[in-house]
Here is the input.
Amino acid sequence: MRTFQARKLEQWYHDPLNCLHTTVATVLMARGADPLQVLGRNLGFVHLPGEVTSEEFYYPATSPNGVLGDLAPFHGIHSRWWRPDSHDVIGQLYEALVQDELLVAAVDNFHLPYRPAFHDVHAAHLVVIDGLDEGRQTLSISDAQPPVWRGHVELAPFLSAWGSANPADEQDAFFSSSGIEYRCLRITIDDDFHPMTHDELRLTIETNLAGLSGQGQRAPDLAVTDASTDSAGALTGIPGLAVYLDELVAAAADGKAEALSDLYAMAWPLQAQGFMHGRLLTWASAEWADPRLAVIGRSSHAIASAWTNLRVLGAHLVETPQQQNSQLRRRAQQLRQAYETTAYLYECWVSAEGAA
Here is the structure.
C-alpha cells in the first residue's frame, strides 16, 4: 500500500482572500517564500468577457505561465491545470507527492465532511494535498479557508469531491454548475526567494503603473492559456476597467442578471489583490521609513473595499438586477476613483524617486 507522510504545512489567511490565494500561499511557504512579498506585488485589472467560470478560484489567466504567471508575475513561477489518467488516480497523486510536489486540488464542498457545506451546498473550492495513506484509505489536506482544516480526510468522500460534476445549486449560484472532474493546479517554482529589495519595489510600482495606464482598452492578442473558451478580447488597465463598469451597469439596467453573477466570481481575486498589495506597501513603508508608501497602501486597500462593496451589492441584485441601478453606478464610480487615485500616487512616488 502506498504511503506518503504528511508534512506540517503553514497556512496563511486573511478575510478578503479566496482559496486560490490561500492554497498558493501554502505552497509558497513550503518553498521558503513570504506569500505577501510574492502575491502582493501585482496590482492591475484584467477581465476576459465571456470567460468567467462559476468557481471560487476563478482567475483570468492570460500569461503563458498560467494562473501563477499572473498572480506572481515578478517571480519564476509556472502553473497548469492537470487531470490524472482515470485508470489510476491515486497512483498518479502518489507519484506527484513522492516528487516533493504539493497538489492544489479542485473539490466540491458538498462532499467534504469538514466543510460547512457538507451534504448541503455544491460549490467549487481548492485544497492542498500533502499526504496519502492508502492502507488507511486517507489523505492529508490543508485548507486555510475557514473553518481552517489541517488533517486527514477519508479517501472515498475526497474522491467524490475531487471528481464531482458540481451541479447547479440554487443555494450557491456563484460557485456551482462548474465541473470539478479531478482537476489539479500543478505548480513549478524556478526561483530562490529572498526579502524584497528597494529596487524590486521600484520595479513593482513602475510595472503596475504602466499596466494601469495602458493605452488600449482591449487587448485581443493576449494569450489566454487557462481559459475554457476563446476570449473576445481582454479588458485591461484603468481604461479597460471603465469599459467593464459601464457595461456592467448597462447590463443590470437591461435586467441581465448574468453580468452580476459573473461579477461576484471575477471580482474576488481583484479584491484580494488590492488588499495584499496594500499590506505589502504598508510593510515597505516601515521597512524603508517612507510614509508615502503607506499612503499608496491605503489607496490600494480602498480598491479592495470598493470591490467588496460592488460584489456584495451585485450579489443582492442578481434576482432584481434593475433595482438600485443608481447605487450600482455610484459603487462603480467609487471603484474607478480608487484605481485612479492609486495610479496618481504611483506617479507621484516614481517622480519623487527619480528626483532624489
